[in-house]
Amino acid sequence: MARRKEIDGSAGVPTFYGKELRWKREAAGLTLEQLTKGSFYGLSHLSEIERGQRRMPQDLAEHVDRVLKTDGFFARCCEDVRKAKTRGHADYYADVVELEERARDVEEWMPDLLPGPLQLEPYIRAVVHATHPTEPEEEVSTKVSARRERAWLFEDAKSPETWVVMSELVLLRPVLDPDGMAEQLAHVVEVAQRRRFIPQILPWNVAGHPFTMGTTRLLTFSDAPPLMYTEGMYSGQLTDDPSCIRKYAKAYDRLRAAALPPDVSLKAIEKAAEDYRNGKHSRGLEQGPLAQK
Question: What CDD domains does the record point to (predicted)?
Fold first, then answer.
C-alpha cells in the first residue's frame, strides 16, 4: 500500500485549510467518497482540496459543513483560500489560475506581450507599471511573485502541452531597454528548447487573420469539456459554450497555418534577442526581422 503523503499545513492558507478538512473528515470516520456523496463533485476533486492544490467551491463547502456538522467553518473560510491561491492576480483571472493546473493542453494567442509564465521580473514590472502606474511597490512585488510562480506551466515536465502563437510585434516592441529585452527573449528561447511549449510567430504584415483581438486561450482537459478564455486590458471572460468553442478552435487552426513554422519562429526569437544585444533593434516595422521572409 502506498504511504499517504502528509499535508504541511504551514505552507500556506490552502494547505492549512486542506489539512483541517482531512482531519475533520477522518475524525468523522468518512472516506472521500462518503463525504462527496450527495454533492456534484467527485472524490478526486475533494482529494486535491485536502492537499491544497485546489480551492473549494462555495456549494461544496456548504455541503461539507452539513455532513461534518462543522457549523459553517469551511463555507466561511473558502473565500480566504480563494484569495490566497490567487493573490497577485486579477479577480477575473482567479478561475483560470486554477484551471490551468488541471489542463491537458493549452493553445494561446498573444498579440501584444509575451505569455505571463515566460516573463522575467524586469518585464513583469514594466508591464505592471504600464497598466497600473500608481500601484504601490508592495502590490507590484506581489504581482511579480505571483506571475513567476506560474513559470512551471512552461518549464515543468508535468505541465500542460502548450502551443503559443505570438505576433511579431511582441519581438519588436521594446518593453525594456535593449539589454533587458535581449535577456528576456534569450530566456524564451532557452525554455522553448526544453520542448515544454511550441512557439510560432505571426509576421506583423500578414494580411487579415483570425484573432484580431486580445489574448485568447483554449484549455482542454482529460476529464472535462474544453474552455475558452479571452482577455482585455482590465477584464477577462471564460466561455464554455460548445458551439462557440468550436469556432474558436477552427479559427486558431487557421491562425497557426498563417504563422511561421515552429523551428523558423524559434530562430526569429533568437535573432531578435541577438539584435537587441548588438544594438540593432531600433528600426521600424517595415524593417522587422520577418518582413523579408
Answer: HTH_XRE
pTM of the shown model: 0.70
Q: pLDDT tens digit string along 79-128?
A: 766 665 555 566 667 778 777 878 889 999 998 899 999 999 999 999 99
Torsion sign across C-alpha atoms 132, 168, 191, 150 = positive
CA dihedral 37, 41, 47, 50 (to 10 degrees): -90
Give the whole-angstrom CA distance, residue 213 versus residue 109. Answer: 9
Report DSSP state, residue 28: T
Architecture of domain 91-287 in this structure:
2-Layer Sandwich (3.30)
Residue 117 DSSP code: G
DSSP 8-state assignment for residue 56: P
**Measured CA distances, 194 to 130, 152, 236, 291 (Å):** 31, 12, 30, 28
**Which regions of the chain carry the CATH code 3.30.870?**
91-287
The 3-class secondary structure across 167-225, one letter per residue, is: ECHHHHCCCCCHHHHHHHHHHHHHHHCCCCEEEEEECCCCCCCCCCCCCEEEEECCCCC
C-alpha cell at 224: 472535462
Residue from 272, 227, 232 nearest 248 by CA = 227
Selected residue with higher pLDDT from 229 and 156: 229
What is the grid cell recorded at 9? 499545513
Choose which CATH entry (2.60.300.12, 3.40.50.2000, 1.10.260.40, 3.40.190.10) describes domain 9-86: 1.10.260.40
